[in-house]
Design goal:
Length: about 230
């Protein structure tokens, strides 16, 4: 497992509080939660640790807010492209195209979330983010079940299939390089082809869903980039 390259700050809404959270998020992305600390954030921003405590209280609360913001945005965007796409294979592919785009459009928040996603399992204070994650998973499970009911996907365990998909996307932070051998769009297309072929989708439909210029990718690009 390799450390991710230095990543740019996430999207900033403005104000000192957001500046603190963005800096903390980048530190978590670059070095992990356990090695991120108030002192380094305060030193970088030229403020006191007391100011950070005033805004957030604890380091755990800061991480919870990072996770909640990430999942709130992901949920809103998933619901948006589900509303725009009708075919199950396009809907599922949009989740994949969007998942890869997060690595390039907001790498700090995405990597921070993915590095520390295991903390959503049962740690106190993560209840909201945990519920958001479960809601996102349920959207994917619903698409898988709808596709099976429509005869587009071969029968199978939708919950297990969703975990396989998330497992592929959530570990991208350990190896993904936007400037690497494959462009992000090519990575997303390859993931889509592997996933949809495993679900029994006909090859012509697979090609359309995986296509970086196809309806699923265009929808994800427009929604995530908006």
């Amino acid at each position: 497992m390799t450390e991710p390259a230095t990543v740019a700050p996430g999207r900033v809404r403005g104000g000192r509080r957001d500046e603190i959270l963005v800096t903390f998020t980048r530190h978590v992305a670059e070095r992990g939660y356990d090695r991120a600390n108030f002192g380094d954030v305060a030193s970088e921003l030229g403020l006191s640790k007391g100011t950070i405590v005033h805004h957030f209280g604890t380091k755990d609360r800061m991480l919870a807010e990072v996770q909640e913001r990430y999942m709130r945005r992901a949920l809103d965007e998933a619901r948006a492209f589900l509303a725009r796409l009708d075919r199950p294979e396009h809907r599922l592919a949009a989740f994949v195209h969007a998942g890869v785009r997060y690595q390039t459009d907001d790498p700090a928040t995405t990597i921070a979330f993915q590095r520390e996603v295991v903390r959503l399992t049962d740690e106190p204070g993560m209840e909201t983010a945990r519920a958001q994650r479960d809601a996102y998973r349920d959207l994917v499970v619903g698409v898988l079940r709808d596709g099976e009911a429509a005869g587009v996907f071969v029968p199978g365990d939708a919950r297990l299939r969703s975990l396989q998909m998330f497992g592929s996307l959530h570990w991208m932070w350990t190896w993904f390089d936007p400037q690497g051998r494959l462009a992000p769009e090519a990575v997303a297309a390859e993931f889509c082809r592997t996933l949809l072929r495993g679900l029994g989708v006909p090859e012509t439909a697979v090609a359309e869903a995986a296509d970086p210029d196809g309806p699923a990718a265009v929808c994800a690009r427009e929604v995530v980039g908006s």
